[in-house]
Design a protein that fits this description.
Distance between the termini: 55 Å
Strand content: 15-25%
Largest sheet: 7 strands, mixed
CATH class of the largest domain: Alpha Beta
Number of strands: 22
Strand order of the largest sheet: 12-15-16-11-10-18-19
Oligomer: single chain
Radius of gyration: 23 Å
CATH superfamily of the largest domain: Aldehyde Dehydrogenase, Chain A, domain 1
Helix content: 40-55%
CATH topology of the largest domain: Aldehyde Dehydrogenase, Chain A, domain 1
Number of domains: 2
Structural class: alpha/beta
Number of helices: 15
Length: about 450
């Protein structure tokens, strides 16, 4: 067996160490989850709703403690984590309050027959969660899957094992039956054993393109349903506007939220030529003035990255972009390697083919490109493989809407940051993955839409 270590990215202190489980123990846990599924798949949704509403209340009661845990494990600002956890509690409530409406039987009839559609659970779902939103990313998938009648076994990211253990305890404290939710302390190499298990009927992953290729191939090999949400190299299109300060404030929020560690944060800024110089100048000045320090300090605007390896990855991407002839406007340097602090960075004159154009830079780096016309801006926005969420900014809402209809993205936000809503499907296309989370689609993802004709 190997070990998984939780390390504070700001102080470098070791928080805790966990031992991974053996293949035999892993198989036993999957078998137990399957037994729980068989015994509870027909449990009335009203009873499951009570459990999840209790969970949401516990999440609110423990908000500050769980936020501190996220800060200690992956470096998120404590104040930011508190707000995300509050949103997560409300996401749980939305799913619990709407499960009957979304998954209720649908009755149809014609002159010669009658039929209804019912949504049945399918079995044990294997989930793989990322580290950037330790509670939210896991629960937004696990909650609807369990509400639908499935049981879930989850591998959390290796750098947030304390958050993973806290989530398992949260299910226990909300009085969920044993084995409805199972936390797996395992290595990535054990994923095939899980997916191959006959009781496992689905795979729900939020991770990188590399992990997706492996897990997606395994899901295909063993004929298991999958929902895979991956990278986003999201575009922010700047049209005609009258308030550059408001634009830069929004752009800063879109890029640097959670230290830029968001799949759906804006990463490529495509600006009409007449606004380009002013936008770049004001953006780098705003970035340069951001307080970069202790994530527990309320004055801090930008905290540490989650791991030292990821900081080296970002610096490599910035360096390669500069070698590709992108223009470094501000910073682009490691501030303190012992505390994993990396300054907010602006790269200008970025063109297709450059590193920061072709790859998702999942950290506090903004890539800015010039467009000579709206038509070129649309074409540039669509010229990428990772399509999750786009943002369109401008004074003319009708013009923004017209541009939005031509952007080939899963979601398009006008004059507001890209985000996710409990009631709306979270969509992505191309190499950003396939399947849906959130909203009615999230509740239906791992169900059998069965037609009964009579």
């Amino acid at each position: 067996m190997s070990t998984i270590t939780s390390t504070n990215p700001y102080t470098g202190e070791i928080n805790a160490t966990f031992e991974t489980i053996s293949d035999t123990e892993l198989t036993q846990k999957i078998d137990a989850a399957h037994t729980a599924y068989l015994s509870r798949k027909k449990l009335p949704r009203a009873k499951k709703k009570v459990l999840f509403l209790r969970m949401a209340d516990l999440l609110d009661e423990r908000n500050a403690d769980y936020a501190l845990l996220e800060t200690r494990e992956m470096g998120s600002l404590w104040s930011f984590s508190k707000s995300v956890l509050k949103w997560t509690a409300n996401l749980i409530r939305w799913n619990a309050d709407n499960v009957d409406t979304v998954l209720g039987d649908e009755l149809f009839s014609s002159d010669w027959l009658t039929w209804h559609i019912q949504y049945d659970p399918i079995g044990v779902i294997y989930g793989i969660a990322p580290w950037n939103f330790p509670f939210n990313q896991l629960l937004r998938a696990a909650v609807p899957n369990i509400l639908a009648g499935n049981t879930v076994v989850y591998k959390h990211a290796s750098n947030v094992p304390m958050c993973a253990a806290a989530i398992a305890q949260l299910f226990h404290d909300a009085w969920f039956p044993e084995d409805v939710y199972t936390n797996l302390v395992i290595s990535s190499s054990q994923s095939e054993l899980i997916i191959a298990h006959p009781a496992v009927q689905g795979v729900n992953i939020t991770w990188s393109e590399t992990a997706w290729s492996v897990i997606g191939a395994l899901a295909g090999k063993y004929l298991k349903r999958s929902v895979l949400e991956l990278w986003g190299n999201d575009a922010f299109v700047v049209l005609d506007h009258s308030d550059t300060d408001a634009l830069v404030a929004l752009a800063t929020s879109c890029r640097l939220n959670n230290a830029g560690q968001r799949c759906n944060s804006s990463k490529r800024f495509i600006v009409l030529e007449k606004y380009y110089v002013t936008f770049v100048e004001k953006l780098w000045k705003t970035f340069a003035e951001l307080p970069l320090w202790d994530p527990l300090d309320p004055r801090t605007a930008l905290g540490p990255l989650s791991t030292k390896k990821l900081m080296h990855d970002i610096h490599d991407q910035v360096t390669r972009s500069i070698n590709d002839w992108a223009r470094l406007v501000t910073w682009g340097m490691v501030i303190d390697e012992s505390q994993i602090l990396y300054a907010a960075t602006v790269l200008a004159d970025v063109l297709p083919g450059m590193t920061s154009w072709e790859e998702e830079v999942f950290w506090p780096v903004a890539s800015v490109s010039k467009a000579t016309s709206i038509e070129e801006a649309i074409a540039l926005a669509n010229q990428n493989d990772f399509w999750l969420s786009a943002v369109v900014y401008g004074d003319d809402i009708d013009q923004c809407k017209q541009v939005a209809t031509q952007l080939e993205w899963g979601m398009v936000f006008i004059n507001q940051p890209a985000g996710s809503k409990s009631s709306l499907p979270f969509w992505w296309v191309k190499k950003s993955g396939y399947g849906k989370e959130n909203g009615p689609d999230g509740l239906k993802s791992f169900t059998n839409r069965k037609v009964v004709i009579y």
